[in-house]
Amino acid sequence: MKKPAKRKIAIHKGTISKKLKKKFIIRKKQEAVKPARKKIKPVKKSVIPKKVVLKALNVESPKLVEAEQEKPKEPIQEPKKQKKVLDFTGILLRPHWKQMIMEIWYLLACIVYQLIGMFHILKNHTDGAKRPVLLVPGFFERSLVFLSLRKRLIQEGHPVYIAPLGSQFGNIRKKSLILDGFISQNKLKDFYEYDPSANIWTKKADFGGTARYGAIAMAIGNKGYVGTGYDASYLKDIWEYDPATDIWTQKSSIGGSKRRDASCFVINGKGYVTTGIDNGEYLTDLWQYDPGADTWTKKRAIADLSNEAYDDKYSTIKGIGKVGFTVNGKGYLATGGQTTGVEAWEYDPITDLWIEKSNFEGAIRSDAVGFGISNRGYVTTGKSSSYYFDDIWAFDPDADFNDKD
Q1: pTM of the prediction?
Q2: pLDDT at position 354
């Protein structure tokens, strides 16, 4: 389809109205009457270059910036790292074959050291005022290295004990059991005094009896007492220590059987010894010691021996490794082996009777340590199988047991 032609509007001179023509003529006359404007020339001022102004303002010209941005940036070249040159001046380097000879010589020397050391018996040395040292030789059990180390420690004043572990490669548990057995069965007799104000240990005269383990110890008045235990045989001797003279004196032996791992406590200036084991038999006798008269008195046994009800549960008191302490004029036994290891019993010296108290709330253990301060008893350390404890528990004998506490 053809587009429609646009309409042309023609304006002829004759068509202009008279009014418009008149207005046009009047306007022309007004322009002719107006005075012509004079052109004012601008005053020339001192022109400061644009670069100077930008430099004073510390501003870069936008054109220059654009120009610099358009220029391709040259890559920054990092300074080349200079290789460190090792200076071996004055150092003598062995040739390769000489170094191999030295290494082989060192290996052979170590083997010879071990083999020769096997024929040297390392013995325990119990004398010395400093801290005891335990040497644990390795694969060959003995070597010249341990021989020289032992000699040096003895010269410095250390008691030295030897615990060979043999050649059990990689079996840490077996090695720990061997070491534990050595420590528990190694018999000692050294004696030390502790000064709490100065925090110092001082070596005193050695124990008067034979070296042993599993003994009892108690303090009555201003003297100490050590006895019973095991030194390859069961013992029942008692020794008194006087700190004023630093002398041990043997006293009358405990009545009844020999024993080790017994328990004891002190009430009103008298010592009490009970429990323990003798040749596989758990002992149930209780003995009271009077240091003034140096006599032992037998008390009621901790066993169900009568027809009365007071001793019906006494069978759970016996055992080994129990801990004893005194609170408010009464004796207490807690933890220990043979039974469950958590029972706690209270002994009244006036009635010569035992009363069962609330069980020990810590983990089952034996060979713990106990003591009494003011109106409370304390139990700490001990072991259960191969696990050793480091916690501490306080016991209030007068408080009622609360399951929710």
Answers
A1: 0.59
A2: 96
